[in-house]
């Protein structure tokens, strides 16, 4: 598990690794997933490093709620407010980057 010193998403937030920005504010950054699984696939991250959604929920529940609001606003713009919000948590659930990130899948009708 990487800490913030060796974290891909910390580097993206700091602008050390390029990304395609979708949204940003003081606490939160959103960018296009490099390997999209839907027509619109955005990752939303808190600027502060937390390993997963449970850590974020415990340390800063308001930020978790804010991430949900940002997801909604992206989907409002891209696909009449419909979207899928995913937090892969743990290696065996497919988490590969250990800086909490919400996957927002939208922009098209999604399979059930
Ligand atoms: P997860 O597997 O839930 O940890 O999600 C990590 C996501 O980060 C994957 O969907 C990757 O496609 C995405 N990803 C990895 N590297 C980059 C990058 N440099 N820019 C944008 N997305 C990335
Ligand atoms: Zn990080």
TrEMBL record:
Q: What is the official name of this protein in its record?
A: Diadenosine tetraphosphate hydrolase
Against PROSITE patterns, the record matches this protein to: HIT_2 (PS51084)
Would the keyword Hydrolase be found if you checked this record's keyword annotation? yes
UniProt keyword terms in alphabetical order: Hydrolase
Does Hydrolase show up as a keyword for this record? yes
- In the UniProt entry, which residues are flagged as the active site? 101 (tele-amp-histidine intermediate)
Q: Name one GO molecular function term.
A: hydrolase activity
Give the source species: Bifidobacterium biavatii DSM 23969
**Pfam families the record matches:** DcpS_C (PF11969)
Chain ranges for the short sequence motif Histidine triad motif as given in the UniProt record: 99-103
CDD domains, per database record: PKCI_related (cd01276)
Among InterPro entries, the record links this protein to: Histidine_triad_HIT (IPR001310), HIT-like (IPR011146), HIT-like_sf (IPR036265)
What range(s) does the HIT domain occupy?
A: 8-112
